[in-house]
Design brief:
Strand order of the largest sheet: 7-6-5-8-10-9
Largest sheet: 6 strands, mixed
Structural class: alpha/beta
Number of domains: 3
Distance between the termini: 67 Å
Radius of gyration: 26 Å
Length: 514
Amino acid sequence: MCLSSWVLIISLPKPSLQDNTADVDRLLQAIRQQTGAGHVTCHYRLMKKLPDILRASDYRVRCVLFKNAAGWFIVDVEPVTDARPVLGLAVDLGTTRVVIRLIDLISGGNLAENSFDNPQIAIGPDILTRIHDADQPGGIARIQELIISEINLQAERICRSVNLRADDIYLVTVSGNTAMTHLFLGLEPRWLIREPYIPVTNQPDVVCAADVGIRIHPSGQIFVFPNIGSYFGGDLISGILFSGLNRREETAMLVDVGTNAEVVLGNHSWMIACAGAAGPALEGGVTQMGMMAGPGVIDRVTIDPLDFTVDCHTIEDMPPRGICGSGLIDLAAQLFLSGMIDIRGKLVPGRCKDRFYLENGIPAFILVSAAQSETGCNLVITQADLDSLLRSKAAMFTILETLTGTVGLAPQDIPTFYIAGTFGYFINPVSAITIGMIPDMPLTRYQTLGNSSLEGASMLLKDPTKMDEIGMIQKNITYMELNVNMDFMNRFSAAKFIPHTHTGLFPSVRQWEG
């Protein structure tokens, strides 16, 4: 079936004594003839109102179509003269942030976009805490209600911002990791975190919006992107769709770093994927002064290797109050290049000079003094923080190295390296290369995708042909479990140095020795 949009304008032959085909059959037959669809269905609610609509519109109607695992179906039918818009809502369902985009399903144009904190943070900032809370009596319903209520509120707001109404939204696409989509749908998440780590479903498919509690058009439908097990979610399927990795002749790699580092390698013939816990480093989550990006948060750091002057840039140029992932990666790289930390990531007191001190017996580096910080306290990175960062960066590089190694390649052999999510938006790739987090190769090979999860969800609303493509992506991915991979553990130990035990892997990185 080939449609340029989910909205089809169709003219039906009028009934007569010579053609007494039933109304529903007449409509289904016309859709099949115009689109080439083999099977189309019509639900009961639409059957009840269809006779009046057909006659009031002189048998020229506007159909909103969609597709589920069983085939194509009609979402709604209105007279072609109906001036009301036909809208779609794409949702990037992040653990920390949720982004929604309003789309005109007829023109395919983006109408508005907004982001907001995931209200489930009130239960816990991480997925594990939320899943444990869902185990309590009434927990699943409570945590589902948080996200459903907020999406309803935000959908109404985004529609009002462009003088439209939420009940004109017919289709919603939701892209998120496996745990987040389970909590969105109110599905039991407890077995996601217990051996052998089994989700309720890998293919949630299409559900009625009303059944989930999403307040849009009465016949509105929600498509939840499929996942591959507990640790490879629909947000990666969406990202692959947007990147076009599955359509490439040449092998490429896609990395999306959020709660976890999720990586896929392949082309149109094959894809192999894995996931691991490297994400906290990119959200500043491995340091006591770490926080998400926001006003006053340090996002860039430079250190003069001659006089050791430290320059911190903050978002919106506000007084510093913490550091986010991009600032943390910069800081580690600059500390290493200036000799303030050694190849083991250990602070060198003689280099750090008066910025070095002991905090409860633990070596620490003062990044911003109390007099200059917004908090009135020193902003510091401790040796324990640096050790945590090294573990995260080692995990990241080892995931890439192990995945490529399974197909006889090295990370440096990959011609195109797609970077999605926060990592792609904010991290300075030179700093990430310096500490050995990503491969040392020409920066032209790195292509940032931005919010690939949202973009993939948007693509599906704009192009019906992507529905079948999503199914093919899911079927063609082989998932590799790292928890039982001894090669991963061996490589991980070697990667816990800056930039790496094997310095030949990072020829561009040179520590200043003046």
